[in-house]
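Lab meeting minutes (informal)
Scribe: AK
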Amino acid sequence: MTVSSTVAAASATASANAALQQAAQSVISGSTGNSTMDVQSLVSALVNARTAGTTASLSSEASNDTTQISAIGQLSAALSALQAAAGPLSNGSMLSTYTATASGTGITASAGTGAVAGTYTIGVTQIAQAQSITSGAFTTSQQSNMGTGTLNVSLGSSSMTINVDSSNNTLSGLASAINTANNNPGVTATVVNGVDGAHLVLTSTATGQSNTINVSVSNASSGAALSSLAVTSTAGTTSNTSGTYTSTGSTVSSGWTQTTAAQDALFSINGTTATNSSNSISSAITGVTFTLTSAAASTATSTTPETQTLTVASDTATQETDINNFVTAYNTLVSTMTSLTALTTSSGSAGPLLGDSMLNQIQNTLAGIISGAVKSGSTSTSLATIGISLNSDGTLTANQTKLDAAVSANSSAVGSLFNLTNGIAAQLNSSITSFTETGGIVDARLNAINTDITSVTTQQTALSAYAAQLTTMYQNQFTALNALMASTNSNAQYLTQLFGGTSSAGSLATNKS
């Protein structure tokens, strides 16, 4: 039982006893015949006198348990936030962040895992393109009835087969069938209306010289305009395999026209030539992905590709942001712990975890890590080394000028302070994990509180049952007593009248005279 529970019990008991004394007056009044005894008030006062102290104690203990759980929840949230903020500083990701910047236009780049600082000269001869081919023109009547048969469309080594029948044998129906086919290899189809008629346009969704489109037709119905779509296409040329096709007196131009050739990107890195089927290139420089655009191609007046410089450097801006986020999260934790242990002398109020051994252990452990130094050989590095000072209230303050100088020019100190083995962030992460994991001190405290809540609930249930039993017993007893006193008073009044009283001669007195 806590001190607050004891105080609550004593106060409730005193109030209950005062109420009982007041209710007891009805017994005196009832016994003298002045009024009927107030059974309900007397029973309530008696039951309350028997149970008030325990009721108040249990209620206070339950309230204290709830407050403790809420306080531990606030502490746990602040610990989790600090652990998350310390993540980039404890897992090495902060120290491995780099930026990739091109000196001109036409190349965008980003650096990721595995990148190292360096400077590269990039020259682009050509960018990767996706092939696009356009069919010959179809008349209005041909567009509405392309005939029937089987249309095969392939892209590189993958293909799809479309059964052309009365449900899709219009030119727009063919385009829709191509676009919605489940096994479409990566070809989009559109219908373009020109002055000479309608054209079916096929475009590869993938760039690269190997991604060429081929179309063939089989089992075409007699006179079907569909047959004119049979063609074999290569990256640089197109050749018709079906010859000229005549339908209903109209001549349909056979074959396809290549509007855009399929080609790979061709570029050089520090003089070494390389190719790629896509303009997004991630395998040329370890850890670096760069994208080529048409603006990076060589000029029309020179066969030598334009070159520009790609610089990969340590991402100091992200490093500073990560460190500042860590400082903010730690200060929030300190503020949370301070509020949970605060003592207001003017009002006598105390934080829910004031003097709590669990919080004290967490606070002392983390403060020791923050104020300590990380040793690397004979060199010791602390937060102060990179411009972060420890204040008297336990919070941290970052001097941005010193921090900027440290991450820009003293990367070895930053790397040592936040190394993956015994760096400050790694130590914090390990300690917080031990505090909050299953079986840790936070988990153990919550389990103990929840066990106490279960016990209090059980006791409250038992107390309610006991109060109900007392109420029934007292009601029965005092109802009988009330009836007895009423009968006694009635008999007393009769005898007074019979034998004469202070204000009545009485019938027996009169007869005696």
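Next up, CB showed the second protein from the same session:
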Amino acid sequence: MDQDTKNGGIIESAEKASVVSMGTEKVEKEKRNKYAFACAIVASMISILLGYDTGVMSGAMLFIKEDLHINDIQVEILAGILNICALVGSCAAGRTSDWIGRRKTIVLSALIFLAGAILMGIGVSYAVLMTGRCVAGVGVGFALMIAPVYSAEISSTSSRGFLTSLPEVCISSGILLGYVSNYLFGKLPLRLGWRVMLGIGGIPSIALAIGVLAMPESPRWLVMQGRLGDAKKVLLKVSNTKQESELKLREIKKAAGIDDNCNEEVVKFAHTTRGEGVWKELLLRPSPAVRRILIAAIGIHFFEHTTGIEAVVLYSPRIFKKAGIQTKNMLLLCTVFVGITKTCFILVATFLLDKVGRRRLLLTSVGGMIVSLAGLGLGLTIVDHSKERLMWAVSLCIATVLSFVAFFSIGLGPITWVYSSEIFPLRLRAQGASIGVAVNRAMNATISMTFISLYKAITIGGAFFLFAGVAVVAWVFFYFFLPETKGRSLEEMEELFSKKKSSSMKVEGGEKEMKQVGLGNSATLSV
């Protein structure tokens, strides 16, 4: 009897979804709302700034070291200090976005980064350069937290994976632009070249800050402020039909604790809604579901960088030099190919996330990374111990660097941001996501600031064997702790993590039932 009731509920939900989608091919094909798509693109462009800074610093460090006469320890600190400051920025961004809104937080992020870029462009001394990196880092921390959260909150269930992966696309595009900037401006005089490389990164932030002002606020943040009338207007713009927007509004109101029958334009909450008490609910007294969500978010952010991507992206010129490539032009040209590979495969990932699913793509990605890292470790070890230049070993190093970046970009890279921005409940989302970003930046800084010392201690080949071992642990963690979230609304995530196995079975069973009544995945995604 209970099973029949469940099946009946599934079919009833499917029928409701059919009504929402109006049963027409036109609505089914129009899975991505153009307005929501445009807003997500603008919000995600803030991430180009981070990507550019990472990519350009990779080559600029060669010139900075020569011009300012700094040692390897100072180079490591210069590379990693941005991420230490980004950790501070990401922690502050969660509460800030709950207080002033998602949109204004994006503007603030762009302005902070602009100030940092100006200081780095001046760069009259190592101290000024470090100050600029610190200021830019705070802006980066804000950007990394807010862009995926805004995209997740403004997108529909059917396109959420695509839209929330756009920040990672922008990061990869920024890295590629940074590599190209290295190659082009590297031909300028030494004292001018690297300063132009770093300073020019602030120009897009001005246009971005202006563009963001034309975007709407997140409807979920508006509901949390009791501004139901404003939220309804935004939902009408980012939904394909009026019925769909009304269904979304009911779900968000329910998640925010507002009576479904309330039709007021503005609601006064009896409790505070500006992010107070969230840290206590997240860290001190979390429910079992919230605890699992927090572990999943921290885990995926931890493993994104401890598997070695920052070592490859930031220190690729050194890696290629160790592999046997000597001239600066060739080193910088090889890094451009790394950037092209990263950008191309991240674009592929955006189209697969909502079709293949997060979990399957993630496990495939990490599996490929393990093989690539082991191959790179082997190639570098052979080159390191060989007295003559072995072209096959050099080719192996180059091929495995590119394959590692490709596998990372098609799964772990974008899914980290998609997954962590969608699994937290509405009341905890901004500050929960900020914890994940803080862990992400801490691990990024750790790898950035220790890689040179690490490979000097255990050889460069040994360093990549170590990363391969971490990737194996990451695969096991993802297999056991990360359930599939494809096709689930943001308001369903807490239930998904409260009963992991039964929920997963329910989703799979629900999809089968919907297919049997002729609705397929489109109905599942519309619920």
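CB comment: Residues 429-458 form the longest helix (30 residues).
No objections, moving on.
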